[in-house]
Amino acid sequence: MKTRLALLPLALVLACGGSSSSDAKPTTIDIAKLGLKADVPEGSAAGDAIVGEGVLIQGPGLVVDISEASDSTPKTIEDAKSEAEMYSPKDIKEEKLADGYALTYVNEGGMGTNYWVNVRREIDGKAYWCTTTASQPEQQANALAACKSLKK
To answer: CA–CA distance from 102 to each of 19, 28, 145 (Å)?
Structure first.
């Protein structure tokens, strides 16, 4: 499981090479595999995740992975911040949500600047993990908005 989590950021950075357009109109899409909906830029589509059992949503200025939270997913924002320390995070922003938390930060890696989003939500009695490692700040903002918009 730790290997899977370690590979996910690389997979998402590679997938994030697409458009950074932030002017796409928002739309709501069904994430049938998880029984959820999300507000995303128009033109986005949900498909199978690159790694694991989740869903990868890709669209204009957006790449985000959503899955049911596992036992290794940080349960609290404090746990998430502790886990993020291995990436030497900067510009850390945390938000407590009514049903979870959102954590964003930036780091410098071998491929340049990375913009991270880690959101845990409890929706209808089930925990979900919504995450990305983006290559542009607009992608980070779009991913955070999509994660915070998750609903049944």
So the answer is: 24, 20, 10
Phi, psi angles (nearest 5°) of residue 116: -95, 145
Here the tokens at position 111 are 């491929």
**DSSP H/E element including 146:** helix 137-149
Task: Using alpha carbons, select from 104, 113, 107, 96 the residue that is nearest to residue 143.
Answer: 104
Cα separation, 75 vs 142, in Å, equals 23
What does each C-alpha distance from 88 to 8, 22, 92, 105, 120 come to in angstroms?
A: 17, 27, 10, 9, 21
Exposure string of 105-136, with b = 16+ CB inside 10 Å and e = fewer, is: bbbeeeeeebbbbbbbbeeeeebbbbbbbbbb
pTM of the model: 0.85
Structure tokens at 21: 């357009």
Query: Six-digit token pair at 103?
Result: 């954590």
Domain 2-149 grouped into CATH 2.60.120:
yes
Residue 71: count of CB within 10 angstroms of its CB? 6
pLDDT per position as a tens digit, 10-45? 444 444 444 445 567 899 999 999 999 999 999 999
